[in-house]
Design a protein that fits this description.
Elements lengths: L14 H4 L10 H17 L23 E8 L3 E2 L6 H7 L4 E4 L6 E2 L4 E8 H32 L5 E3 L9 H10 L13 E3 L1 H6 L5 H14 L5 E5 L5 H7 L3 E5 L3 H11 L4 E5 L7 H4 L6 E3 L2 H4 L6 E4 L6
Parallel strand pairs: 6-11, 7-8, 8-9, 9-10, 10-11
Antiparallel strand pairs: 1-5, 1-12, 2-4, 3-5
Helix pairs in contact: 3-4, 4-5, 7-8
Amino acid sequence: MPPLTSTGSVPSPFADRFSSRLRWEAIDPAAINALLERARAEDLEGFGLAAAPRHSGDVSSALLPADVAIVAELRAREDLVVCGLPLVTPILGLYGGGHFVPLASDGQLLARGQCLGTLHGPARHLLSAERVILNFLQHLSGIASLTARYVEALGDTRIRLLDTRKTIPGYRVLHKYAVATGGGWNHRMGLFDRVMLKDNHLAAGGSTEGTPLAEAARRARAAWPDLAIEAEVDGIRQIPPLLEAGVDILLLDNFDDTALREALALIDGRAATEASGGITLERLPRLRGLPLDFISTGATVHQSVWKDIGMDIPDTSA
């Protein structure tokens, strides 16, 4: 059998059907505001504690005169892909106001020392909002930056790097937005938008092999004719009955490189293919030449490290 190779960067015929990139405009502002309000309440009201604190508000910034205004800079203290800038203005609004002038855009690669933007307003407001602003920016920029490394490792290929549902509860849309900002792609926003026959679903229904496996896929198609049907397989033997049943996507779970090649030759374009499990930065260059459609990993979120971003008040005394 000749070696399997991809068709370079020519998009897969399944690419746009089964993946997309979440844009900021598609995120519900009400959901974001609820998250921001909770972050503010943690700092100012002790949200989450069983007993209310003796005092509320920012007792440190309250020592400053109310009429003191400052200009502060958000600066990258290491190289990063910036993400989360649209959150800054609504955060300031929750703290009484202030003005943000962005000097970068989400998805932009910044070098250490570069400025993300400037904050203008009452010192009390800006200093109270500082940690919440930085928490969101550092966290989301960490995800975007690691995703960019994975995309770079995958190289010039038709394969799209996908995210997963391994997200911190309440942060899913922001995590998926950060993956998209870093150059990755999104799929499966939740349990509602795709039928996913995973190993535990199949085991619970006694449908892990042969004819019962195909029948499980057909029941899924009959129940949800307008949704994509994806099935997780852990061995070559499971692929023929699922192809016969007409599943849309086959998730090749924890297949080594040799097994992936065998599976792809068997599938031969009759369903979209997604490799998952054991996906590392070191392995991606070996996979980019295969005619896969997708590679999915949760590592871009759960293994990301916050990026160092500071809020500094320039010294104007000189």
